[in-house]
Amino acid sequence: MLLKEIESFLEEDVGQEDYEEIVPYTDCKAEITVKEEGILAGLEEVKQIFDYLSVQYSSEFEDGGRIKSGDTILTARGPGAKILKGERLVLNLLGRMSGIATLTSMFVSEARKVNEHVRVAGTRKTTPGFRKYEKKAIAIGGGDPHRFGLYEAVIIKDNHIKLMGLEDAIKKAKEKVSFTRKIEVEVESIEDALRAAELNVDIIMLDNMTATEVKECVKLLTERGLREGLILEASGGINMKNIKDFASTGVEVVSIGMITHSARSLGFSLAVVE
After folding, report:
1. Confidence at residue 18, expressed as pLDDT on a 0 to 100 scale
2. What confidence score (pLDDT) does residue 155 get?
3. One domain, residues 182 and 164
């Protein structure tokens, strides 16, 4: 974490008030425990926050490890004022990041029952100001974070196509974008997917198609000799009930917005025990 991030997060929660003058400065021991099973994420950030607050800590866990209800994730020792100052921040980070990592892991597990090579990716549907940590949580859960922002790859979406047309949008991107950046095109029909492949884009996102349509598209692209070097990504409406259907279509990637925008936080608590 950057120093300015820690200070900004703490200021958001504690404000300008001198919290350490209100809470007793008594030396104490506190434990952070988890209330349910999942994948741990955010522990490294918690350690950095306690380092900033000059609180000592110990933990037998690592990010990415499986945790169960009742596990003591971390033990902290130091002034009560310091520990409680960071309490809500560290619990929020653990809960949010572990929730995303846990949901991602569930999707990866289901998808790889039918396709051991498929990637489960996130999207840019993230919390403003917290994307870095949500993307990290996806990776901890075994997923692919996808591009971090607009600058990492060019995605020609439906609105670009409405403004410019499919062929002109691809042509413009190839003229203006460095060879080091991939060009991805979002399509909603098999016809547009075939045309985009003929125009030699790097990635085609099959958006809001049914699994049956995606499978047919993969079949036609293969038959026409357009699959070599082409990455296919299925996206839109993918959930735990149909993830195996999409993973078995032959695409390389399934991207799922709900692993960030709809992930439920995992439950953690902090209690002073001495």
Report:
1. 62
2. 82
3. yes
pLDDT of residue 52: 95
Cα distance between residue 157 and residue 169, in whole Å: 9
Domain assignment of residue 124, given as a range: 113-261
Bridge partners (DSSP) of residue 35 are none
Whether residue 120 is found in the same domain as residue 157: yes
pTM of the model: 0.91
Cβ 72 vs Cβ 32: under 8 Å: yes
Instruction: Note whether 97 and 117 are same-domain residues.
Output: no
Tokens of 56: 């000592």
Longest dimension (CA), the chain: 73
Which residues lie across from 183 on neighbouring strands?
A: 154
- Give the number of domains in the chain: 2
Q: Angle 222-228-231 (CA atoms, 0-180°, nearest 5)?
A: 90
Do the strands 27-34 and 268-272 form a parallel or antiparallel pair, or are they unpaired?
Answer: antiparallel
The predicted pLDDT at position 43 comes to 98
Position 138, amino acid = I
Q: Are residues 62 and 178 in the same domain?
A: no
65 shares its domain with 46: yes
Please give the average pLDDT of every successive group of 10 residues along the chain, which has 274 residues: 88 72 82 97 97 96 97 96 92 97 97 95 89 95 85 80 87 85 91 93 94 96 94 94 96 95 95 91
